[in-house]
């Protein structure tokens, strides 16, 4: 079975029942889970954690038997840093981009598709990355 990295925005859309994105995110996650193993990494876990008061609540929302937890390879960390440097050289000023680069680099290095609805930065800095995203 293949693995798909699930970006925090899709997970949070479902958890928050986001008015605009709930339908797309829930359907995409369900479809991917039927044919693949859904995965997260520590960056995604941390991003989703802000919605919860206690780790036990987060663990219940992302049960390990349904969502595989992966560590980020050092090669992905290196690539994330290089993408951040490129972003800044292009004039990017947003300070919170490093988590996105970690997620994109992780998927790219491991050859996993990334399920996300936030495609702009991923398409720019990881052009070969397969994205599962809204059309």
List descriptors:
135 residues, alpha/beta, Rossmann fold, 5-stranded parallel β-sheet
Question: Can you walk through the features of this model?
Answer:
The protein has helices at residues 8-16, 22-35, 42-49, 55-61, 74-89, 98-110, 120-125; strands at 2-6, 36-40, 67-69, 114-115, 131-132. By secondary structure, the protein is of the alpha/beta class. It has a 5-stranded parallel sheet with strand order 3-2-1-4-5. The chain starts with a strand and ends with a strand. The model has no long low-confidence stretch (mean pLDDT 94).
List the helices and strands and how they pair.
Layout: E1 2-6, H1 8-16, H2 22-35, E2 36-40, H3 42-49, H4 55-61, E3 67-69, H5 74-89, H6 98-110, E4 114-115, H7 120-125, E5 131-132
Parallel strand pairs: 1-2, 1-4, 2-3, 4-5
Helix pairs in contact: 1-2, 1-3, 5-6
Radius of gyration: 14 Å
The CATH superfamily turns out to be 5'-nuclease
Flag low-confidence runs.
none
Instruction: Give the overall pLDDT as a whole number.
Output: 94
CATH topology: Rossmann fold
Helix content: 40-55%
**Strand percent estimate:** 5-15%
Number of helices: 7
Instruction: Tell me the name of the CATH class.
Output: Alpha Beta
Q: What is the topology, as strand order, of the major beta sheet? A: 3-2-1-4-5
The CATH architecture name reads: 3-Layer(aba) Sandwich
- The coarse silhouette is globular
């Amino acid at each position: 079975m293949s693995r798909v990295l699930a970006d925090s925005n899709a997970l949070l859309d479902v958890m928050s029942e986001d008015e605009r994105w709930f339908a797309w995110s829930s359907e995409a996650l369900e479809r991917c889970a039927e044919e693949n193993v859904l995965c997260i990494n520590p960056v995604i876990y941390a991003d989703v954690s802000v919605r919860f008061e206690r780790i036990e609540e987060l663990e219940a929302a992302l049960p390990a038997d349904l969502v595989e937890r992966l560590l980020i390879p050092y090669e992905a960390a290196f690539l994330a840093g290089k993408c951040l440097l490129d972003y800044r050289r292009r004039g990017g000023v947003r300070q919170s981009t490093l988590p996105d680069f970690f997620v994109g680099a992780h998927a790219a290095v491991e050859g996993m598709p990334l399920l996300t609805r936030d495609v702009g930065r991923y398409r720019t800095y990881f052009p070969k990355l397969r994205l599962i995203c809204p059309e």
